Amino acid sequence: MMAVEGVVKRFGAHTVLDGVSLTVAPGEVVTILGSSGSGKSTLIRCINGLEALDGGRITVDGLDVSDPRQLARARRLSATVFQMFNLYPHMTVLRNITLAPELVLRRPRDEVEAQAHALLASVGLAGKADSYPGQLSGGQRQRVGICRALAMNPRYLLLDEVTSALDPEMTAEVLAILGKLAARQSGGGGTTMLFVTHEVEFARRISTRIVFLDQGRLIVDLPTDQFFAADGGLAHPRIRQFLSKMAPAAPLAEIPA
Ligand SMILES: Nc1ncnc2c1ncn2[C@@H]1O[C@H](COP(=O)(O)OP(=O)(O)O)[C@@H](O)[C@H]1O
Ligand SMILES: [Mg+2]
User: Is residue 131 pLDDT above 80, yes or no?
Assistant: First the structure.
């Protein structure tokens, strides 16, 4: 279980996370919604141990991310995909995926390469192993980013606005992949997901729970159907206001097997 307990994070005088508590249990797909600036990315960075906390505690399967030695072990349990793809431009797609499993997890190259090819095939990029990131579209690059995260065999997959730099068609490609991962998840298989997105309709379809961050406070944490119920999440004016500003849902693309 991933447990965020009363986390406070300040930048100077600005309290960006103000006593946030959140748990993600194995098998859950939890979506974080909230306006720009509400603290979503900061929360993800705190979970990754990239920001020192000003209060509270974060544990990943019992490992405290504020303790450097425990953090090193906690980092092996989760993988994060960010908005910008951060692929190495001078390395092939295959090498981008295999680098960390080989160097960090010390897994044998042939095993990691076989997994990378299987992952690429699963996101419709079977023929792109030897391409360079610059030869791919944004949507293809983000699909490689997802493969790179999955190649670490993470127990927890964190996704921070992975489609917000993409046009609608590419967004649809990437969401289709995440939908497949989530569906496998609800079947009891794959990776537990903590998902920051503005794709509300998509989140509604794939999430077990939705939480809403408002100015650094987590004001609602509900099972998905209750989040969208009139006497649940929609009873909150801030949430109604947020949802009313959202763009219409992106269509899902078919990804060839
Ligand atoms: N390194 C930083 N230094 C100062 N302020 C920051 C830093 N990172 C984020 N912030 C501020 O914290 C607030 C929350 O940011 P962020 O977590 O990126 O929000 P979100 O991802 O929900 O859009 C914003 O007001 C942002 O300007
Ligand atoms: Mg953000």
Answer: yes
Measured CA angle at 240 (ends 228, 232), to 5 deg: 35
CB 238 within 8 A of CB 38: no
Quote the CA–CA distance of 19 and 15 in Å, as a whole number: 10
* Angstrom distance (rounded) from CA 63 to CA 123: 32
Best probe residue, ligand 1, of 4, 7, 10, 16 (max atoms within 8 Å of C-beta):
16
Report the alpha-carbon distance of residue 133 to residue 131 in Å, rounded: 7
Q: How far is CA 188 from the centre of its chain?
A: 18
Which letter, b or e, does each residue of 126-135 get, where b requires 16 or more Cβ atoms within 10 Å of its Cβ?
eebbeebbee
Q: Which helix (H) or strand (E) holds 169?
A: helix 168-186
User: pLDDT tens digit string along 87-129?
Assistant: 999 999 999 999 999 999 999 999 999 999 999 998 899 999 9
Q: What is the pLDDT of residues 197-217, one digit of tens each?
A: 999 999 999 899 999 999 999
> In terms of Cα–Cα distance, which of 233, 231, 236 is closest to 221?
233
Pocket of ligand 1 (CB under 6 A): 11, 16, 34, 36-42
For residues 70-74, give the mean pLDDT: 94
